[in-house]
Amino acid sequence: MHRNALSLVLVLLFCFWTSEVAAQFRTADALTPTGSTEMPLTIDNDRIAVWSGGALVFVQDRYSAAPIFRILDRNGTQVSDFRFSIPGAALINIYDNSVARGSDGALAIVGTAYSDDSRGGMFVAWVSPDGQQQTIIRTSPFLPHAVTLASDGTIWVAGQEGRDTTRPLIRRYDKTGKLLGSFIPWSRLGTDPHTLPFVLSVLLPLQDGVLWYAPRAHTYFEFSSDGSVIERFKSAPHPEHDLTFVAVCGDGGVFASTRITSEGHHQTNWGIFTLDRQRREWSLIPRNERWGRLLGCDGTGLATTTDHKTISWLEPAGR
User: What's 45-235's CATH class?
Assistant: First the structure.
């Protein structure tokens, strides 16, 4: 088949897929706008933001020797800031889904630290609410990707140690760096060993436990505070290879959004999936904007952005 003809077929197939998904999962429920908050900084490749622990955590210079963490309230007012550094590190890389704030204001951070001679090592960090105390946990060869702080203050990390599928993918630490437990070996997921299920995954706190959303494994787990699995659902039917943003609200509502791209990586639209726990099914709430993503949830209100600089607050129907 001619290359141009093949490209046209792929585009048509993609458009058919997106329309079929939208039709199959379209729901009568809606997301009602309830206001907006202007952010003092714009999200870009060097800056990330997440709504976590009742505040917006904005990370600036996330690929530098000392990334800046700014904590903003719901009005967009900065309430605190600090520079994060590690002794002996000339470069620190902070990735997506690798920053979380606890209900007490403490922060958990995962990333990579490099010395002057370019030797790198993975770490998990706990930072006190005032930014004055920190614990650095060296995790290599374990490669952490996602992190959250549970309601009891423990640090949960999703990652992988080598290619051994018998190794657990989830770790739990206390704020002193003590390893409290490891859970869910790769082999339990029933996925291809080359899937790397921890990549693009998300960890979020529940009222009495933690949620691990792993789109590349087509699943997510809900753990009790001691690490026992209490529930398992399929992930939302979005492209598994795409970067996914997930939010869990105070009433247990779970939402997931993802970019939908076409041939040539041109943005087409976006939507927010919501989970019906009783039916164990996802419903898609289409959005009119050409692009958007979830930042998190505050109470039952979803924090979203469609322009990288404004938080648009959405309230799910019936909540």
Answer: mainly beta
**All structural domains of the chain with their residue ranges:** 15-44+243-319, 45-235
> What's the pLDDT tens digit per position in 146-200?
999 999 999 999 998 877 778 889 999 999 999 999 999 888 887 776 778 778 8
Gap between the Cα atoms of 2 and 33, Å rounded: 47
CA separation for the pair 57, 69 (Å, rounded): 7
| Cβ-based neighbours of 249, under 8 Å, separated by 6 or more | 255, 297, 299, 300, 301, 302, 316, 319
Q: Quick check: 139 and 161 in contact, CB under 8 A?
A: no
Parallel, antiparallel, or unpaired for β 219-224 and 229-233? antiparallel
| Cis omega (within 30 of 0) for bond into 193 | no
Collapsing DSSP to helix, strand or coil, 50 comes out as strand
The DSSP symbol for 77 reads -
* Among candidate residues 225, 205, 204, 223, the one with its CA nearest the CA of residue 213: 204
Q: Residue 276: how many CB atoms within 10 A of its CB?
A: 13
